[in-house]
Amino acid sequence: MSIDLDSSEGRKQYLSEKLDDLLEGINDSYGTLLMEELLSRLELTVKDFNDEMKVLCDQLVTKEKERQQLLEMLKTSDGLPAPVPVQTPTTKKSTQPGETDYFESDGDEEEIPEWEKKLAKLEKK
Predict the structure, then answer these.
(1) Residue 38 clears pLDDT 70, i.e. is over it
(2) Beta partners for 96?
(3) Confidence (pLDDT) at 116
(4) Domain of 88?
(5) Are 93 and 101 in contact (CB under 8 A)?
(6) Which residues make beta-bridge pairs with 92?
(7) Are 90 and 102 in contact, with CB atoms under 8 Å apart?
(8) Coil, strand, or helix at residue 30?
(9) Residue-level pLDDT at 63
(10) How many domains, the chain?
């Protein structure tokens, strides 16, 4: 006799046969109830597992699509020109009372790269 584990009915039949073999020592009244309860719990466990796997696979597909979109955005930003640094307005500095000297502030502020802006925009979604 061949075992058909590819179909739901075949798996149920296989498990029923194995449980029958295990429950031969228990009397008929308890054996039937016990086997029915075991089968219903086993079916519930398998259903829960399948549902969880479906959710996980759906999440995996969604995350992969997001990664691909991010990668595509990063690839398209490679051709963009380099950002032009923003100069800060000049400030007044008094060297001596009554005398003023104008100078530009240090350009220590670095421009945020375009890819970081795009990444921040995606994370906000």
Answers:
(1) yes
(2) 99
(3) 82
(4) 8-124
(5) yes
(6) 102
(7) yes
(8) helix
(9) 96
(10) 1
Instruction: Tell me the sheet residues that pair with 93.
Output: 101
Distance CA 103, CA 113 (A): 27
- 83 belongs to a structural domain: yes
Q: Is the dihedral of CA 18, 23, 24, 27 positive or negative?
A: negative
What whole-number distance in Å separates Cα of residue 49 and Cα of residue 35?
21
CA-to-CA dists, residue 118 to 70, 79, 109, angstroms: 8, 15, 19
Of 62, 108, 68, 67, whose CA–CA distance to 86 is shortest?
A: 108
**Which residues are registered as beta bridge partners of 101?**
93
In a domain, 55, yes or no: yes
> Mean pLDDT for the chain?
75
Give the strand pairing for 91-96 and 99-103.
antiparallel
Within 13 Å of residue 42, how many CA atoms lie on the same side as its CB?
A: 14
Q: Name residue 56's amino acid.
A: L
Give a yes or no: residue 1 inside a domain.
no
2 domain residue, yes or no: no
Please name which of 63, 65, 73 lies closest in space to residue 120, comparing C-alpha atoms: 73
